[in-house]
Every structure is written in structure tokens, then in C-alpha cells.
Design goal:
Elements lengths: L1 H12 L1 H8 L23 E3 L5 E3 L11 H4 L2 E2 L5 H13 L5 H8 L3 E2 L3 H10 L2 H8 L18 H5 L16 H32 L16 E4 L9 E10 L5 E8 L2 E6 L3 E3 L9
Parallel strand pairs: 3-4
Antiparallel strand pairs: 1-2, 5-6, 5-9, 6-7, 7-8
Helix pairs in contact: 1-2, 4-5, 4-6, 5-6
Length: 280
């Protein structure tokens, strides 16, 4: 069955190469013939085995003790559904391991061009890996088990760190149920907002001036203006002018927001770290 899937996939994507190595009469040509230089797999030195499958001829063909599949891996296009299913299977078999582990294991049997791009696609579409990412703590994990659990992205997305969204219970009175559900949702969001301000905000403001020098607020910085504890009320703005103190350090800044320009102390400004596309 594997040979059939390999041959069909190769015929769909590498029809010219298959025809070149097989011959017009349908029989495999003898000798060390190769495909045209314009072919995407020319540098892989492809050849056709006894089963009619395209394989890569590498430099370890004469190595003793190496399995045949590792010496001559099957060539599969990275854009094919079969290659994606194979990578997905290895990703699950090795328990959602890191990318290089999957690359190493797949290469024992297959040669897939742009394999890392395909693995990245599989990992992005993996629900288990997304859940794992969203369960990583944003704040310090409490030592005392009686304390609240650390905030995670799932708290904001689903209301809990487990990644399991609780199914709502339908109320007897639909109108009263909507009111109570809304109030409960607002209460939960307000609680997480308070914890975010208390636990996570100090991390992004980087209050470490007593241990080393940090970059000061400068003109052009994108900032959040910390204004009270009301959720969703902090304004986003751009620093237009800075004001230095007697010690020469920036102490205040003029920030332009959608509702006007304000003068605020730097302690009330949270700088948002924006990375341009050239550095990603």
C-alpha cells in the first residue's frame, strides 16, 4: 500500500521525472541516468527502484549497517497531502516533540523538500500544541499551593488554565439568565484584569532601575497610559516629547492619544515593545 501511495504522489508531482527515469516504453532505464537540470529534484540525484519508486541517491550508499530506507530515502513533494500526513504522524508518534526531532526521524525514510516549512504548518494546525502554548504561565508560579494559579493565555481565552471551556447551563428564565451571565462574565474579567495589573504589568514595565540601566522612554515610543484600575480604559498613545529631571533622566513625557495630548510621569507609562518586520 505504501508503494502505491508513493508512486501515485510522485506521478502527480514529478510526472516528467518519472517519465525520464522509466522510459517511454514504461520500463526502467538502465544506468545512472538522471533528470533534467531544470527539475526541482535534480540535486537529489533521483533514481527509480525495483518497485518504481523515486528515491534519493546519497553519499552513504556504500555504508554498512545502514538501513536501505536511510541510504535511499523516498522523495516526496512537500506540497502533497501524503507528505503532510506523514509529518503529522511522526509529530504525534514522538509526542509533539520539537521540530528538529521530527526532521531527524522523517529523514530516516523520506526526503521532503522544505520539510521544516511543512513541520511548522503541521504544528500550527495541531490543537494539542496550541493548547500547550496557551497553558504556559504569564506570571510567576506560586510556591504555596493554596495561592491562585498563575495567569495563562487560556484564562483570557476560555476562563481557565485547563483549556477546557465550561458549558453554560441554560437558565429557566432566559432574560434573567442573560443578565446573570453578563454580570458573572464581567466579574471574572474584572478579576483577571486586576491580577494582570498586579502580576503581569510589572514584568512588561521592567522596573529594574536599581539593578541596571534600562532604556528610557523616548520620542516615538508606543505606550499605554496607566489610568486607574478600570478595565479597557487605558489609552494607547505615542510619546511626542520627553521631560528630564535635575539628574538628567527622563521623568515625564507628553503623550498623544486619540482623545488629546497629555503630560504623564513615566511611572504611569507602559512601553509596548513593537518589532518591525525586518527583525522577525
Amino acid at each position: 500500500l505504501d508503494n502505491i501511495l508513493w508512486r501515485q504522489t510522485q506521478l502527480n508531482c514529478y510526472a516528467d521525472e518519472v517519465q525520464t527515469l522509466r522510459g517511454v516504453d514504461g520500463n526502467e532505464r538502465s544506468g545512472r541516468l538522471t533528470v533534467a537540470k531544470q527539475s526541482h529534484i535534480y540535486k537529489l540525484l533521483p533514481f527509480m527502484d525495483e518497485e518504481g519508486v523515486l528515491r534519493m541517491r546519497g553519499r552513504i550508499g556504500a555504508a554498512a549497517g545502514v538501513p536501505y530506507s536511510a541510504k535511499y530515502p523516498v522523495i516526496l513533494p512537500g506540497t502533497s497531502n501524503l507528505a503532510e500526513l506523514i509529518v503529522e504522524r511522526y509529530h504525534r508518534v514522538f509526542r509533539h516533540a520539537n521540530k528538529e526531532t521530527v526532521v531527524n526521524e522523517v529523514r530516516q525514510h523520506y526526503q521532503i523538500p522544505k520539510m521544516r516549512t511543512l513541520i511548522n504548518k503541521v504544528m500550527r494546525n495541531c490543537a494539542y500544541c496550541k493548547a500547550m502554548i496557551n497553558t504556559r504561565p504569564l506570571t510567576y508560579i506560586p510556591v504555596d499551593p493554596e495561592n491562585q494559579e498563575a495567569l495563562t493565555p487560556n484564562h483570557f481565552l476560555l476562563g481557565s488554565s485547563s483549556g477546557i471551556k465550561q458549558q453554560p447551563v441554560l437558565p429557566t428564565n432566559y432574560r434573567d439568565g442573560l443578565k446573570s451571565n453578563y454580570k458573572l462574565a464581567q466579574h471574572i474579567l474584572d478579576g483577571m484584569w486586576g491580577r494582570w495589573i498586579k502580576e503581569y504589568l510589572p514584568v512588561i514595565t521592567r522596573q529594574c532601575k536599581w539593578f541596571g540601566n534600562v532604556r528610557e522612554v523616548k520620542v516615538g515610543d508606543l505606550v499605554l497610559v496607566v489610568d486607574g484600575n478600570v478595565r479597557n480604559m487605558w489609552k494607547r498613545g505615542i510619546v511626542e516629547r520627553t521631560i528630564s529631571g535635575a539628574d538628567g533622566r527622563v521623568r515625564q513625557a507628553w503623550v498623544r492619544t486619540s482623545s488629546g495630548t497629555y503630560r504623564r510621569p513615566v511611572a504611569k507609562l507602559a512601553v509596548l515593545e513593537v518589532v518591525s518586520g525586518d527583525h522577525t
